[in-house]
Design brief:
The complex is a heterodimer of chains A (493) and B (292). By secondary structure, chain A is α/β, with parallel strands linked by helices. Helices cover 40% and strands 17% of the residues of chain A. Chain A folds into 2 domains: 259 residues, Aldehyde Dehydrogenase, Chain A, domain 1, CATH 3.40.605.10; 180 residues, Aldehyde Dehydrogenase, Chain A, domain 2. In chain A, helix 5 runs parallel beside helix 6. In chain B, strand 7, helix 7 and strand 8 form a beta-alpha-beta unit. In chain B, helix 3 packs antiparallel against helix 5 and helix 4 packs antiparallel against helix 8. The model of chain B has no long low-confidence stretch (mean pLDDT 96). The chains are: A alpha/beta (493), B alpha/beta (292). At the A-B interface, helix 9, helix 15, strand 18, strand 19 and helix 16 of A face strand 6, helix 10 and strand 12 of B.
Amino acid sequence: MPAQKRNTAAGSRLIFGDLWEYDPAPETADPKLKERYDLFIDGRFVRPRSGKYFPSINPANERKLSDIALAGPADVDQAYRAAARAFPKWSSMAGRERGKYLFRIARLLQDRAREFAVAETLDGGKPIKESRDFDVPMAAAHFFYHAGWADKLEYVAPGRRVSPLGVVGQVIPWNFPLLMLAWKLAPALAMGNCVVLKPAETTSITALKLAEILQDADLPPGVVNLVTGAGETGALVMGHPGAAKVAFTGSTEVGKAIMRQLAGTNTKMTMELGGKAANIIFDDAPIDQAVEGIVNAIFFNQGHVCCAGSRLLVQESVADRVVAKLKNRIRVLRVGDPLDKNTDLGAINSRAQLATIRRLVASGVREGAVMYQAPCELPERGFYFPPTLFTGVTQSHRIAREEIFGPVLSILTFRTVDEAIEKANNTAYGLSAGVWTDKGSRILRMSTELRAGVVWANTFNRFDPSSPFGGYKESGFGREGGRQGLLDYVTLA
Amino acid sequence: MSAAAKNRIPVTKTPKVYIGGAFVRSESARTFKVSDRSGAFFANMPQCTRKDLRNAVEAAAKAGPGWARRTPYNRAQILYRLAEMLEARSGELVASLVGFGAREADAARGMAVGVDRLIHYAGWADKYAALLGSVNPVATPHFNFTVPEPMGVVGVIAPDSPPLLGLLSMIAPVIASGNTVVALASETVPYPAILLGEMLATSDLPGGVVNLLTGYRRELVPTFATHAHIRAIFASAGSDDRKALRLGAAASVKRVRFAEQSGAGWFADSAQGLDLLRDFVELKTTWHPIGS
């Protein structure tokens, strides 16, 4: 019995999850995938000029799901022209009418939520419980929230006249494909802009499924145009002279390249880039809750989260206890088939990302940190990586400085509040941070001192369309969500 | 007038730049000559170097946390105090502007606008947070709020015209929210910035909050662009400098804003306001559980 084997390996401790095996509990809803997805331009699905397509695979088993159109310069140009044609009517439409389209999109997405969740999990590898309970409902919530802003532009900036920018170019990452699309589209459309958006190369399917919803919602042609492809297509979208503004979510490295690409232009920019968040555990924290918080902070979505709590800072006096509990906890995390409702960690999004994770983990071992990996069997096919902890990490280790974007936690310790602040802020990034303590005044002190755009106190990885999200320092600029996020999609007069 | 006074040789001033609350020459000991409107020699100005800029950034970084921790009410009063200092010495400032070619009426009006603008931002110091921040009605049991915070050290590159009003208009919104500034004064009319430094020094503004450099733009723009501790740039710049600043800024994801005003535009009310404060703050959102 595998359960006994694992118990023996860990000594004689009783581990809850070792007591029995789970039966498979696969989600069986039909994702309704097409064999081939074309570009979505001017309200219609069109073949790419080049006639080229690339495969989108399921990272859980490396099987092909669909062929995706590869957009070249002519296609991107066509998308921008369609958006420019649609802009005068869309931007001058009464806000209450524009809002109705967004409300429709939210509702139609809710109608097809399970189908979208399965498609998202197949295409990206994330556990079905996350796509079902987080990605898809949150995407719908973003459309619903921003729909209500469409007729309230005069309240966005008191005393100022607010108008849309024009055509906006957007490029989004592969970690939350549908949700990032909603974060980008909803505020842009609510404010009266038209959009050319490129989903990530490995996760285009739910964006193109959303195009079906845009058609069903009768959204005017050209208001949203989707072009698919890899980095080269992204550079075309970001660099197109028709863009009044570009919005990018992705790595800091690519963000910097875009900033350089656009240095000589007047194109407005917002950047949502990488992170290396500190998750800080004080000795008065409720330790069991904190351990759950640590797990959620780093293993949510296999750690493919820009705001993941990837640097754990534990107060020295409780460090041994926290690490021991954490090791026990991750031993019972279930890694495997993303479509199984019991799965905690699904597949790594791509072979390339798996290689990146392995490379950085190897550097951690080489530089002298102590690695602990949960003993778990990984599926034979597909891209998987076990939940991994590093103790004895110092601030100069690569695994403490670079974004790994995988299920790998670097653990450091501190003694005083000031030391925690200094270590937490000792990074070029500044996207998020977590604080675990029983003391309200300490939470507010930490929140004031931490140089990060989002601070979670006694919780982690919480998101809401009404809550502005975005980074300090090299984690980017601009905010998404809330009234503050709208200002990045308008001009003020 | 006595014969002695009539024949007296005036004592001329050695212009020094105001860095970290002290008046210093360039570390390089370099100067550049400035002439008045008649073409007569006026003084040698410090020709600040990259090293001076880096020293100024260090001073600004040191002053930052203390300035950011001042209460908004206190920052408001210090800005108001600065306006008082300028108002009291406006005659000297106007004379210096006229001495370098400004029309008397323009210089006087610019001074008046500049003082009023400081008061405008003094008033903002304890109000912008209420307008830029928010309590957010999230769909989970959390108290969720967003507050603006200063970015840190901000680089300011002032216009040549109007040299003083432009400089004041760019510095005030940046420091009102708790940032500290390293500013490069007009290259063609740098002397009013020297006078401004003397007024800053008597205005209760802590040393290092505003650091003023004089020198050549072409020598300093590249360092403004690439210095990683400068978190944002506010520049009045032509297209070449703009490109250089944005290229350099990319390496550290620096925020860059350009002043779009020129000439008379600086005198208008549209050259001031909340938008400028917003461009030099970060927004921080905190989640706190509600329960037990």
